[in-house]
Each structure stands twice: as C-alpha cells, then as structure tokens.
Amino acid sequence: xxxxxxxxxxxxxxxxxxxxxxxxxxxxxxxxxxxxxxxxxxxxxxxxxxxxxxxxxxxxxxxxxxxxxxxxxxxxxxxxxxxxxxxxxxxxxxxxxxxxxxxxxxxxxxxxxxxxxxxxxxxxxxxxxxxxxxxxxxxxxxxxxxxxxxxxxxxxxxxxxxxxxxxxxxxxxxxxxxxxxxxxxxxxxxxxxxxxxxxxxxxxxxxxxxxxxxxxxxxxxxxxxxxxxxxxxxxxxxxxxxxxxxxxxxxxxxxxxxxxxxxxxxxxxxxxxxxxxxxxxxxxxxxxxxxxxxxxxxxxxxxxxxxxxxxxxxxxxxxxxxxxxxxxxx
Length: 330
What we know:
Helices cover about 50% and strands about 5% of the residues. It is mainly α. The protein has a three-stranded antiparallel β-sheet with strand order 1-2-3, with no helix packed on it.
C-alpha cells in the first residue's frame, strides 16, 4: 500500500501520470514509488539535508522541488554506486531503479506542469548497468512429465484444479498474476484461445493446445457452482477458486506448485512458479522449433532481448552440432 501522504507532491503527480496516462499496473506503480522513495532518501543524505543514516527513519515529504533541480547525473551515479557497494544489489535490481529514475526525470522535463518542470533532464545520458548473463533455470522434459503425473492424483480432492494450473503453466508460460486473473469468460472454447491481462495491463491472446483445453474442461466439470463469494475479486467469474470459494490467491498457487514439486521429488527451493514459465518457454524453443518472435508474443515480452535468454543451447545440442559437421568423419 502506497502512503501518498508521505510523498512530496511532485512524486505523487508522477505516480498519477503513470497510472492514468502510461496505464501502468498497480505493481509497477508500487515499484516506482519504492525506487524513487529510496532514491530521494539517498539524495537527502547525499546533499547533507539530514544527519540520519537509517533509511527507514528518513522522510521525503519535505524534499522540495528546488532540491530536485540541483540533481545532476553524477548524483544519480552516486546512488547507483551506493546500491552496488553498500546494498550489494544485483545488476538487475540496479537496472530496474535506473529505468524508474529515467522515466521519472523524463516526466519532469517533458510532461510535468510548470510548477514541477525541469529545464534539463539529468538522467538523459544515464546508462543501464550491464546485466549478468545467466541462463534461466527450468525443468527438463522428463521432470515436467513427472510433475504433471504427480499432480494428476485422484487422492487430492482438488486434483483437477491443481492439474489444470500446472498444465497451463507448463504449456503456456503465463505469469502467476495472469493465471489468477483468468475469468471463465476469457476462454473461447470454439477457437481454443484465452485472453489474458499481462504486464503493464496489456491484453494478449494465448492459443490453448489440447492438453490445456482438456484440463480446463475437466476442472470446470467439478468447479463449485454454488456458494461462490460475491466480492471485489469478482470470484463468481474466476476460473480458479480456492477452498473458500473465492478467486484463488497468488500465495495459494505458489503453495500448490511447492507441494507438487516436493511430491514429484523435485527441489522446490530450486524451482518455483516463475521457473515453470521458464520451462514452458524453453520446451517450446527446444522441441517445438518456435520462432523467437512467436515466442516473444506467447510470453508477452515487450522487448525481444528479454525473450532471447531462451535461445540458449544445452551441452547435448553443442555436441550434436559438432558431430553433424560434414568434416567430422574425415
């Protein structure tokens, strides 16, 4: 929950602009507020406007816009350096904060009203930290089949629901927030497709294969039809319901995945809901020969560079590439 009353007016104006004009999701707005609050607390220390060093005790509401006008690129670099040196922040975390700061100052220099407008943008030449290139963790094909088989266990009274959840994750590569947000009316069974709201409130279509359609239909046959809560979560329309007959929560889905991984003999500390998204993407690329642009569309990535992490190859593929060289038998 964002406490707007603790923010300076120009920060709240930026958050409102990001919500209404940029159409950013509540999660993005929350991240913007967190990143910029931390940045402003650092600026307060950096400019010697406070003797307090504990970020939790520093307030930002009293940081006037005159202070913002004094910020230069070197001050932003000092903040990024602080994150790396003192906070031991990963490059991805620093990159996100750089992105937030860049958007914030672009707003102040181009979109803000005259009261809060900057003549120059100090973040105009701000570069993004080089990201560590790490291959995503994912389940191989055999472990994926094992997880599905373990989940499809009639001893569990919710096995149809849980199986449908795991099936959608492993086949469609959707995000956790996307799965819990699915309404029954989002599914077009005549066309075997599903409309979901992704990151940044962007809608996209996912075409469902036979496994997904069958799993969803099997669950709908046993999905509660009476006693579903009429609430702000719109539970009556929700595809997946909890034991309390309301829209299933993210935490419940995470717990389901955790217990199913454990039951399948897989390490739940190594894999997670998001790793199932990595698994779906990797399996589609490795076995389905899916074009990178098509994979980008399926996953809902804004940038193709994000999708490119799935173009990694395993050692077997490397070996096969060498063995297939026409000179290998000479």
